[in-house]
Amino acid sequence: MKLALAGTSVFGALILRALLLSSHDVVMVVTQPDRPAGRGRGLRMSPVKNLALAEGLRIEQPEKISTPEFVEKMKRTGVEVLAVAAFGQILREPLLGGLPCINVHASLLPKYRGAAPIERAIMAGERETGISIMDITPKVDTGAVYMQRVVPIGDEDDAGSMYEKLGQAGGEALAEVLEAIDREGMQPTSQDESAATYIEKISSADREIDWLRPALEIADQVRGLSPHIGAYTATGEGHRLKILKAVAAEVPAESPPQTDSDVSDQAMAVEPGEVVIVGGRLFVRCGAGALELIEVQPEGKRRMDASDFIRGHGKVIEGQKFGEH
């Protein structure tokens, strides 16, 4: 089957790589135009374009894919099906109806319709997510589903590792579905609208840590936003600190309490957001438990281990409260 792949992000590049290993013929790659990025604001190519260039594939970068002219260009190129994976444009008529369009969505639809399904699933503490291969319809993520694959979310997984796992699973599932459609006319199944859930794009409010929440929930927030977005907190120095890796933990006692009253005093003294450094480890007290910071990125600096951050900032932040603006 002759395909066009429309994708932009790392997830799209993983889907493209899987298609290139399949029996299908990728005759065109469609990706977003190069955009200014970084401090120098130079034009940056998408991960999908980088892979397509390396493989010598035909590349198209339309500002709008759903135009009569571009639909005709795809047809003249021999495209039979347009596969879409994290492309970044909403498909509309005349593209919809002009060519079969199949999407690789990184959730078990109808759950997590919308943007950032990988991040949202981890942030919600889900233990599994998955891939849905679906028809594209005018209403986002409502099309009938050909196949789903369940992918577990491990305790150590963050958004970066789940992009890899889901991209691999999605590419393999898409290749199987296209083969089945070509061979036997595979038909999709409608989604259960009563079970649908919708999510929004990640906002600044989603990124900021509320230390009143339990440590386990904050750890999920950190994992869900790492490494490409990053959860953050305000520090006692008046700057933002991005937290890229952290685990829920109990703060080790430097010396055991001597009496029951000492235990009571310590419990009353706990304040969410309080920074505690014990044995070269960095903890922040939460509404329940504490978060041990493993990898951080101070504002305007490189990412670093928490131990390196302590060496440069420990005397300033110890005993202060994170999250206060």
User: Which whole number gives the mean pLDDT?
Assistant: 91
CATH superfamily descriptor of the largest domain: Formyl transferase, N-terminal domain
Give me the side-by-side strand order of the main sheet.
5-2-1-6-7-9-10
Largest sheet: 7 strands, mixed
The proportion of strand residues reads 25-35%
Total strand count, please? 17
Roughly how many Å apart are the termini? 57 Å
Described by the principal axes of the CA atoms, the overall outline is: elongated
Task: List the uncertain runs.
Answer: 255-259, 261-268
Structural class: alpha/beta
Number of alpha- plus pi-helical segments? 9
In the CATH scheme, the class of the largest domain would be Alpha Beta
Order of helices and strands: EHEEEHEHEEEHEEHEHHEEHEEEEH
What does this structure look like?
The protein has 325 residues and is an alpha/beta fold. It has two domains: 198 residues, Formyl transferase, N-terminal domain (Rossmann fold, 3-Layer(aba) Sandwich), CATH 3.40.50.170; 114 residues, Formyl transferase, C-terminal domain (Methionyl-tRNA Fmet Formyltransferase, Chain A, domain 2, Roll), CATH 3.10.25. It contains nine helices and 17 strands. The strands form four sheets. A seven-stranded mixed sheet has the order 5-2-1-6-7-9-10. Helix 1 packs parallel to helix 2 and helix 1 packs across helix 5. The longest helix is centred in the middle third of the chain and has 26 residues. It is elongated. The termini are far apart. About 4% of the residues have low confidence.
